[in-house]
Amino acid sequence: MRRRPERLNKFLSVLGAYSHPLILTHNNPDPDAIASAWGMKKLLENNGWNEVTLGYSGLLGRAENRALVKALSEPFIRLEDLEGQSGGEPDGRRLSTRPMPLDAYDGLVIVDGQPGAGNISLPASIPVAAVLDHHPRLQNLSADFIDVRPAFGACTALVYEYFKQCDLEPDKITATAFYYAIRTETQELGREADYRDRWLFRHLAHRVDWILLHSIAHAPVPRSYYATFKIALERARLYRDAIFADAGELPIPDASAEIADWLLRLDEVKWALCCGTYRGRLLFSLRSLVIDARCGAIAVRIVENWGLAGGHGSMAGGQIKLAPSGYNRNTALAELERRYLAVMGYSGETPVEDPFAIVPGELSRRKFGADLA
């Protein structure tokens, strides 16, 4: 048997002190967080752990995310349920089991997130045993074991490194989850994909359940999905190559991210910010086509001394807490737009009258032929 790498040995040694770990994702987990957590559970079970629980806070909002969790046939427990709180969401959207006491778990394994990032809810009674993430490392990050590597496009690919070191290959369902996570997180390897993401994407292809993958990627969506897009389109304002869209009251917290991705395809746009309110917070997602855009740093600048933000090079997100009394949504919305335009260098500019008007004889304002010449 070949010698195990030092990082794997250290990870397993640290986790050896915890008999009932809780694997925790960031709030409102996306496919990368879900697949990373699932992969970590498989890894620990392969190394002798019998009781490994998957946890999150918030909700599994997007239809695709719920379909992915359903395909895994393993409940993701809501942290609110563990704390005995109802959370107020319908059972059909929670995909969790009966609440369990927090004292049943003795250590947290955090994947696709970091303590202090503002988008992860940590139970104070459970120590952080390990952190595995691909976002930029936060200052003062503390845990018994830390593996933060921003070069990875998907946290799932980082988790798979541990699979390789254990000579563990994913089964069909796990391979499908990993594949879908990389596909969505890196937008078909076109957004911040590392060579390890690309290698794993190709490596998994012969193991994927393509019928299952299709059912996840094309899960049925409710009417509110289209209504939110409609509102964002009606309220969108275009300033040169930067678009700002207010999607209103969001049915799910990650709706703004999907709309921002979608608006970035507008042929005049290089920057897209979509926002909306959800449970007393103004949430926003920022996307860019600019090379070395540093969206995470820009999002932090936008909410400086006002809210929380973070992210990667070409994508980021943030939130601003609204006043509980005198609901100040309009004031916060105007301030967010003002700050966004200031950072873009477009302060005081007038938006395009109708950003979606059809221009006769013009298919696209992006000169693809010239770009390719």
Strand order of the largest sheet: 3-2-1-4-5-6
Summed up, the domain count is 2
Instruction: Please name the fourth-level CATH homologous superfamily of the largest domain.
Output: inorganic pyrophosphatase (n-terminal core)
Task: Report how far the terminal alpha carbons are from each other.
Answer: 54 Å
How would you sum up this structure, described in words?
This protein has a 6-stranded parallel sheet. The chain folds into 2 domains: 6-217, inorganic pyrophosphatase (n-terminal core) (Alpha-Beta Complex); 224-344, Roll (Diaminopimelate Epimerase, Chain A, domain 1). It is α/β, with parallel strands linked by helices and 373 residues long. The chain is built from 14 helices and 12 strands. Residues 85-99 and 368-373 have low confidence and may be disordered. 37% of the residues lie in helices and 17% in strands. The protein has helices at residues 6-15, 31-46, 63-72, 79-82, 91-94, 155-165, 172-185, 195-204, 210-217, 223-235, 255-263, 295-302, 329-344, 368-372, and strands at residues 21-24, 53-56, 76-78, 107-111, 128-133, 145-148, 237-239, 242-249, 271-278, 281-288, 308-311, 315-321.
